[in-house]
Amino acid sequence: ERLQVLDVAGTAIMLLPSSIRHLKNVRRLKLGGRKGMVSQSERQDFMSLVLPALWSYRTLCVIDLSDCFLLDGAIPNDLGCLCFLGILILSRNNFVSLPGSISQLFQLRQLYLVGCKRLEAVPEFPRFIQEVYTNDCPSLKSIVVPSTKHSSLSRVSFINCLELSKNQHGDNIADILLKYMLQGITNQSSIVVPGSEIPQWLEDQNLGCSASTQLLPSWCCCRQHLKGVVVCFISKFTIVSEIRVRFKFKGHGDRELLSKHSIHWKTDQNRKINSEHVWLCYAGFTTFNFLHQPDLLCPNELCQFEVTVVDCGGNEMLGIKKCGVRLVYHEGKDRSGSEAVDECTCEIDRN
């Protein structure tokens, strides 16, 4: 009864014994890891793991059911009763849909649905979800778009989900997701979806891996109105392992001030990407600590803000089609600190 971690990954267990209900204090349950037991051609028809009712395991914090060949109905409908569940890993399974009760997991922070080849729809995200990874799901056609109540959502990835961009909002899906993420409480957000266009409201766009925006002479005096920066770029590479976005302030006389802060993505080693993708990210300016030092920056010294997409070694990233950037101000303010008339704020959806 004191057992807290149950790891039977890599075994041939298909039915959990009824006596498992006596494990009242299990925190971590790992049943996955059987993908090497059958060939790729056999995976779609391999017998699914049979799960018991979950209401007796309310202490669970982490569940890993990856590579369990789960079919529709294999995940119990009482999944939502797991009030302490923080991480749910359902990657590489055979279900077409997920139980709607997943939205009731109010403590869930991370959801993994990578490589679910048959998955067609994702239900509403739990309210306090932070990260969703739904890569390599070629049948995925629809998701329930997050709303303002998903204020903690900070990272969403739909790499190689090509049907999603064809069937739901097209290239606008990244734009729609970012709208709600900007209204949240996170200081950094990132989205990756198939697509080939940078949102039009990112006015400062450039071919290649870098883009810049001009700073008005009065920007230093009104920088307290800055909310952050939005960066978007289009990739056309086929293999990638790590991507970073580097921030730099430029001044007159070739003076440069490179921020130590950057946004980065890490993927599986040498991940294959099957088409052009939109990478959209936001970084709050509270992460740039030097911006809050009143005597450090002067309007006469800095006149440009530049972003560059680089690899893990700091070199300019190859395979970037175009890049865009825009400063984001608190609602109702523009870049000069005056009342905004037509300026990008935290509510960036103009349609």
TrEMBL record:
Residues 193-331 form the C-JID domain. It holds the Pfam family C-JID. It comes from the Eukaryota. Keywords: Leucine-rich repeat, Repeat. PANTHER family: LEUCINE-RICH REPEAT (LRR) FAMILY PROTEIN-RELATED, LEUCINE-RICH REPEAT-CONTAINING. This is Putative TMV resistance protein N-like. It comes from Davidia involucrata.
